Amino acid sequence: MDDALDVWAVHGVGGTLGAILTGVFAVAAVGGVSGLVEGNGSQVLKQLVAVGSTWIYSGVATFVILKVVDRFVGLRVEESKKRQASTRPSTARSPGRWSRGRVGRAAAPRGARPARGRTQPNSDGAGRRRTRFHGPGPRTG
Predict the structure, then answer these.
(1) 42-72 and 14-25 are packed helices; what angle lies between their axes, rounded to 10 degrees?
(2) Would residue 7 be called left, alpha or beta, if left means φ above 0 and alpha means ψ between -120 and 50 degrees?
(3) What is the spatial distance between Cα 104 and Cα 123, in angstroms, rounded to a whole number?
(4) Which of 8, 68, 119, 139 could pair covalently with 12 via S-S, beta carbons 3.0-4.6 A apart?
(5) Which band of pLDDT confidence, cut at 50, 70 and 90, is reported for residue 117?
(6) CB-count exposure of residue 43 (10 Å: 0-12, 13-18, 19+)
(7) Per residue in 57-90, pLDDT tens?
């Protein structure tokens, strides 16, 4: 399973632990129900049942959603598209359209002329400024 955003680590584990510990540290003065700290051990059991039922519901709902998506769209990428995608560089890491291989600096297309006095911040965030180009300039020999 690919969990690049740590959804399971944050929401699954954190939510489960938080729900169970709510049964441990609940205080009647705050929530109206006392927890294990105030001598009510049954609240921890109620929290465990709630966590278990939430896990079961989430698992069944996820399974149904995946089956529907698989039926209409498909969950897997075809091997030919996988190979094709692996031969092309990722757009997030490839140089810009006019960079001619220099990452972090935009170079103008051949014959472009800079706009007078207009600059914009460089994309690499280093504080340098570059000139914005406005299309090809006059042709010279």
Answers:
(1) 160
(2) alpha
(3) 6
(4) 8
(5) low
(6) buried
(7) 999 999 999 999 999 988 887 777 777 766 666 5
Q: Where are the alpha helices (DSSP H) in the chain?
A: 7, 14-25, 28-31, 42-72, 79-87
Amino acid at 102: R
Q: Is the dihedral of CA 101, 103, 105, 106 positive or negative?
A: positive
Domain borders along the chain are 7-84
Q: Round to whole Å and give the CA distance between 41 and 29.
A: 17
Q: Apex CA 52: angle with CA 7 and CA 62, to 5°?
A: 50
Count CB-CB contacts under 10 A for residue 35.
Answer: 22
The answer, as to whether pTM is greater than 0.90, is: no
